[in-house]
Input
Amino acid sequence: MIPVYICDDEQVISAHLKKIVSDQIMILDADMGPVRVTDSPSELLKLQRQDTVPAVYFLDIDFPGQISGLALAQELRRYDPRGFIVFITAHGDLAFETFRLRLEALDYIVKGDYDAMSVRVRECFESIQERLHDEPSGQGSYCTLKLFDTVRHIPIQDILYFEALGYKHTLRLHLVNELLEFNSSLDHFEEQLGEGFWRCHRGFLVNRGHVRKVHLKEQIVELDTGEECPLSRKAKTEYRAGLS
Amino acid sequence: MPFAFRISVIIFVFILSGLGMFWLAVGIVGKKVRTRPFLIYAACSCAVYVLSVVLSSWFVEEEFLFGPYFSLLFAVIGYTVEAAALGLVVRKCYGIPFVQGLTAAMLSHFIIYTVDDVVSAATKAYSPVFGGMYLYTFITIVLPKLWGFFIAFLAAYVLCKSGFYRYFAALFSGRFKTVVIVAVSWIFMLFWTFIDFFYPNTEPNALYALFFFSLITVVLLWVQFMAMYTAGQEKIHVQEETIAQQQSHMELLEELQQEIRAFRHDVTNLFSGLTLQAQEGDLDGIQEFMKKTSSYFDEKLGNEIKQMDCLNNIQLYPIRSLLTTKLAAMRQKHIQGALEVLYPVQEKQVMETADFLRGLGILIDNAIEAVPSKDGQIRLVLLQEERELYVAVVNNYEAEPDLNAISEKGYTTKGAGHGTGLSSYRKIISRYPGCVTRTYLRDGFFVQELRMPVQSA
Output
């Protein structure tokens, strides 16, 4: 069961929303619940820790006098990096792109018309179900990456390879459909990730799971995405020794 | 003289002049002297000299070897390579563009050799002949080098303190200017070589010394003047740009005013209709009306007002004007542009504003180039947080960008001539440790993120 939280300081809205959400869960026969309603962010944070994650959160954007919806969502994310956040707003002009990029917020719902809200909630649940279905069910291993004060958990199977750039201690992490550049060292990740990864070159650390072929003669490691990493002479000798 | 003494004098002189050159060149580009880059440079220049001596003794015939032509050739090649080596070291270790490092190296070469030449000529002319060779060597060889080093040290200090590098960098803003500057500095570097070549029998005296010291002063003043002049031009250019940007801001305001006028007209009409309905007691009609008009205001004016608020949130004025211009350009090209700046953005980021400006400009230009010709969408996000400034440029695209190819140099979907942007973007970012860049595709959008650390208070 995936718990659902609604946090809004307007009683009317949250009562409304609770009804809509419960109805939609029934209609879709979704594996979600219980639906909890609160009007205070601090209580929501407490509630979150008492149940399982991931969870679904419907949050009001602005709590007068309290922490902003953004700060609240960041706090929630810290404990539940894979949860689903949906914002509730009174006006259509909220900065949703910011929330989507920064918090991976799922969607937003405009307060007001009951039917329109129902449709929106239903869409949210459908997309949540789809995402849960796509996600590999087993708790796969993750590579943790701390950038500023957020920690990112990257599924190991998404990592293609790490590349050390010529600049001072800059790494480029090649993921499926993503590039990430940050300051760190290959040695650090070689240690963290262990056997699943192979230092095929002084400046490259590849995910063994993505290696398609090793071209010994051309000194190239080919990945299943078609990308290529160089193979150093030292790694080549070790590789050969490992084979025989 | 014993061999050990000769060797130690040579090594001493070598290190001193090398250190002087390094110190001054680093001072010109406004950085602090560090040990490691110097050692790299020293190794390079030693290698250059040893190699050139070995090569010339192998391949050049004896009578040519000590002739004037050879020493000219030797100096021209040797000095140039040495200056290039220093330029490379400065580029690698300090992140200064190569041409600037090269020019700095050549200028400092000129200054040090001038001092050295003049002082050694003077000491040779005026020093009494000592019985022992040690003192003579000291006075005519070591002392001039010490002087050279001292002057270099002093000049570097003064240049650093006066923030000379700002002007110096402005000298390299155009291709033509860069070529002229490099050529002139090259000639200065080889000035003494040419003098020796064309007038081998010049007799040094006090006037001669005076002349060359004034030459150094003139060269420094010339460089300073040129630099200040270009910096001034640059400033005018920037101001012109600001005016253009403000004009486009004005246009946005005027547009908004027009729309408000139209809106007022509409509202008056709508309300007279509503009044009628109310008088007739048509509740259903009124409800219908409310449903239709509640989002009307947002649709009409919401976007412009929101964008204006976001722009006003940016307290980094160059960035604000950049965004204003770019948003105007998007409107002109019928690209749907949106800006989100949730909290005030102040000048707190580690990156210098000029570099931030260039980097952001590159990202936005790329986005404008990449959007499909119909229904292009670009979203810009700036978010000031406690420890970082978050920037994102999001666009839809016509051809799906190949992320693997993007990491290569000069990637573009637009054919040759484009795509230098990304590599210079990367170069800018690489100068600031702690920055994180992320590039990814999601739901049909191409996202470029930049996260910059904020200066700790």
